[in-house]
Amino acid sequence: MDTARLQQALDTITTRMQASDDWGQVASYIPELARIPPRQFGIAVATAGGEMLTAGAADTPFSAQSVTKVFALAIALGRAGDQLWARVGREPSGSAFNSIVQLEYEQGIPRNPFINAGAIVVTDEILSGRPPKEALAEILGFVRAAAGDDSIYINDKVALSENAHGHRNYALANFLRACGNLRHAPELTLGTYFHQCAIELSARQLARAGRFLIGAPGMPNLVARPRIRRLNALMLTCGHYDGSGEFAFRTGLPAKSGVGGGILAIVPGRASVAVWSPGLNAYGNSKLGTEAMELLARAMDWSVF
Amino acid sequence: MDTARLQQALDTITTRMQASDDWGQVASYIPELARIPPRQFGIAVATAGGEMLTAGAADTPFSAQSVTKVFALAIALGRAGDQLWARVGREPSGSAFNSIVQLEYEQGIPRNPFINAGAIVVTDEILSGRPPKEALAEILGFVRAAAGDDSIYINDKVALSENAHGHRNYALANFLRACGNLRHAPELTLGTYFHQCAIELSARQLARAGRFLIGAPGMPNLVARPRIRRLNALMLTCGHYDGSGEFAFRTGLPAKSGVGGGILAIVPGRASVAVWSPGLNAYGNSKLGTEAMELLARAMDWSVF
Amino acid sequence: MDTARLQQALDTITTRMQASDDWGQVASYIPELARIPPRQFGIAVATAGGEMLTAGAADTPFSAQSVTKVFALAIALGRAGDQLWARVGREPSGSAFNSIVQLEYEQGIPRNPFINAGAIVVTDEILSGRPPKEALAEILGFVRAAAGDDSIYINDKVALSENAHGHRNYALANFLRACGNLRHAPELTLGTYFHQCAIELSARQLARAGRFLIGAPGMPNLVARPRIRRLNALMLTCGHYDGSGEFAFRTGLPAKSGVGGGILAIVPGRASVAVWSPGLNAYGNSKLGTEAMELLARAMDWSVF
Amino acid sequence: MDTARLQQALDTITTRMQASDDWGQVASYIPELARIPPRQFGIAVATAGGEMLTAGAADTPFSAQSVTKVFALAIALGRAGDQLWARVGREPSGSAFNSIVQLEYEQGIPRNPFINAGAIVVTDEILSGRPPKEALAEILGFVRAAAGDDSIYINDKVALSENAHGHRNYALANFLRACGNLRHAPELTLGTYFHQCAIELSARQLARAGRFLIGAPGMPNLVARPRIRRLNALMLTCGHYDGSGEFAFRTGLPAKSGVGGGILAIVPGRASVAVWSPGLNAYGNSKLGTEAMELLARAMDWSVF
């Protein structure tokens, strides 16, 4: 990989993003996220060659939120194997991230593991009768191992704030429970889920953590090759909720976004990219993060297609 | 009213019902209701003339459940007046009693006060910042006053059982809360709601309690005449969930059913009828109760049309 | 009936309506209806006692449109009996008059005979393999017989205009056909349907035509008593599409509206009321017609409840 | 590319498929397709290196049906550019290929160009006021040019059969027209659409026709590189209707299926693959074709991820 060209692309994009006059809207549904200053942008790329390139605020920790769904899914598949797919589907939902409509029409089987309902089922699978602390230790341990960085942590305040305002997630979890697709009390699974979402890391750390999805020699070997491909396929088709098709159309890369403004994108065989900017677009994905990812994919001629 | 003819109709219908070979299925979602012996049938009519006629097990108390929604609505309208209609609609929903789909499409405004979501909003309105005990005292007090019978009570075990298994109602309440249409914590409003539903009374007591809806001189004067009409209109269009049109088509009477197997029907100007049989049909309404009500309406030529 | 009081009510209401500063919006989807001057209002009452009282433009013919669905349903039930209910339901739809969503979810069985999809099935049942002319002769003949007035006619220009702009009805008819619930080619059934809707009559004629639904001695005996009740029940629960609950709540009377601005309401045992004003409200029902009906019901203390 | 290994994979897969004891169900909705013998299987690969490898019935012509949607989309984008996206979305629908529900909720804008509603809009865009014959000449010309084979033809009998039984497509087209998203009379656009779908070619011809989507030097240069990527992205996210996520999960390749049993899959930069077997699975995609594609992707280690 031409790292000089890549560094130049990152710098150019970062300069352009920092000059933006529309940074999007910071998530406002919990106070802990609402008070993040919006005008921040950072990007980091971990290459299959083992290099790390960054630009902007690549070392500022942010709330990973739904980006953690990728790691949780990898863990749950490791624990349950293909039996997980009896509890959650693999199709794009065509609906918003927090929609409950599909759940009623399809009797409590979420369409895919990246919408909220599906991610709650995944965390419920990981919980598996253990005290939440143990499940969280496994999740955090996986992310730390992937990043090779034990300083990644869970922000309890964000988790508690989420719990206090997470009525829509409580609606989903209770509905799943009513349909027999939640093994623990909703407050137990959600307590775990909110703490998982409250993992904080920087773009640099996230790019490192994503290396196991590149599928190249020398990368952290946490998941077997066929499963890596499947995780990438799910990220491409379902990683941005009802904006997934649009993101695939524009960037051609598998990726997962979070309401904290982070996006993890994978360039199979080549790189793991993390971008962060806390202001969101209408789909609830990072506004500048999405734009930056599209510019980077174009500049580097990165696309799976 | 020809009370001899009415008594004969009640007796004939009761004999026929007791000979039924299909009593329907007792509600099984909570243990407290699941263990009720199904082969029971009772009916009672309170006439505008002040008479009470009964047949069968008219003095066996049963769980009123959703039949209480009528009384709660009368109370909430008394407290909030037409402002209540900003929080809940007046249209048939075309959906099951516990559906959450409509709630998402219409941003947390339940279609009507008789589906579960709407009834939860109504109870939330009655709660009004008070301790649940006070709200429950008002609700129970209203039913007792309507029936003129202070022995009507709340079965705490049923309420607690409902609370332990009411995940779908928790889903609805949390969704309402997420939409800003629930003023109290979901567990507070639902605690009140489950206790309201756990009111127990006999067919005789229920028929007496329904007299205020007849709209005739000498009946308990709890609600003004125009509101009585409106309550009856809502019962006719929405009282049996997605089986409301069918019930109106067959009996021509405003009525409200409950999952405990009770049905309260009003013959405007003439009578209040309560029927009870715990086995349910596919819509979740009393199987023999529905059939008996249709036979009675035909035998007495009772219909609002 | 106190006809003097009734006449006075009609006059007062008419005066008040004529002073309105918001007449609603005339239906604009076909040119033939769009050019009707909006500021017109007429009302007529045919009493069970055989009297006819009118006020305003009670002799101006207007396009009956969906009001004809009541007459068509009476005819189809006469032909097919209860077998008709295998093709169409009896429940309020909770959806707009021309919605196709419910049809897909319920495999081509329309919720009730008064939404467009259901009315198309009803006309298809009447058509019954005959040339459309014969079916139309039966429909027009029924309305004329009910009104005792052979001058009622079909406006071909309106029918042709409807046919040229009726893509949504063509979508419904083709969908029904695809589901196996339409016996004729869509253009054949719709040709008949559009001509049925294009029947024109005045408020006076419509009030007379509705007398068979009053269910009182001396009224035209076109339909047996139990069926009259059922037709009224359907009008009350489904007669105003997704505004049916609201209309029942406000007036307490079974009624059927049409996009031409007409409403036929029945006061069981007492009267048939027709009101007309071409401007519509948001539900597609006559704005002043709806208001006038509510005022009249209140003034005369008319309500089935 | 190791063509010896590829040929061996094709032969092994074909032998295995031919020994299958479940060939799926041939499409039965039109007589012309229903009478195709089900036990047929053919596969062909056109490599970026210019080679053609086949196995099984690779020279039997079959009805391309929805596979033509890819070519039509390429043409429409060539004509209208990004303005096309004002008429049709780019998101997976989460619904069946012929669903009309989403169309009503989203006011006549189909979710993507590969579900029927979206493909009808695409053909309507190509039609562009011209006689259908001219539009069809352009579509057939494009496919012939892509394949470098002027013997590819349209089967009129299939088109006429489709027209006679295509009520659901007529429902979609009329609904689009009612929403203002169809520029021609439904029968005109659908006449064109049905003829487009009736293009017949063999697996060999289809594999050749798909080469312009490989995006490699020396391939037919019909569409610019960025657009090739976008077409592939849409095929991956939306190419198999509500089975798109599953197909992407299993094979990791962009592909488009047709009800005639054909599938065109692209291995970006490397190959264009066509497989055909007329029996379908529950999603309406070729049963053995889907299985074969998964086996081939695994055998050749082909995946975009």
> Average pLDDT value of chain A?
95
Q: Regarding CATH, which class of the largest domain in chain A?
A: Alpha Beta
- SSE ordering of chain A: HEHEEEHHHHEHHHEHHHEEEEH
Sequence of strands across the biggest β-sheet of chain A: 3-2-9-8-7
What integer value in Å does the Rg of chain A equal? 18 Å
Distance between the termini of chain A: 18 Å
- Which chain pair has the greatest contact? A-D, 34 and 34 residues
Mass-distribution shape of chain A: globular
Indicate the low-confidence ranges of chain A by residue numbers: none
Number of strands of chain A: 10
Q: What's the main sheet of chain A like?
A: 5 strands, antiparallel
Q: How large a portion of the residues of chain A is in β-strands, by DSSP E?
A: 5-15%
Number of domains of chain A: 2
Oligomeric form of this entry? homotetramer
User: What's the helical proportion of residues of chain A?
Assistant: 40-55%
Structural class of chain A, please? alpha+beta
Count of helices of chain A?
13
CATH H-level homologous superfamily name of the largest domain in chain A:
DD-peptidase/beta-lactamase superfamily
Q: If classified by CATH, what would the architecture of the largest domain in chain A be?
A: 3-Layer(aba) Sandwich
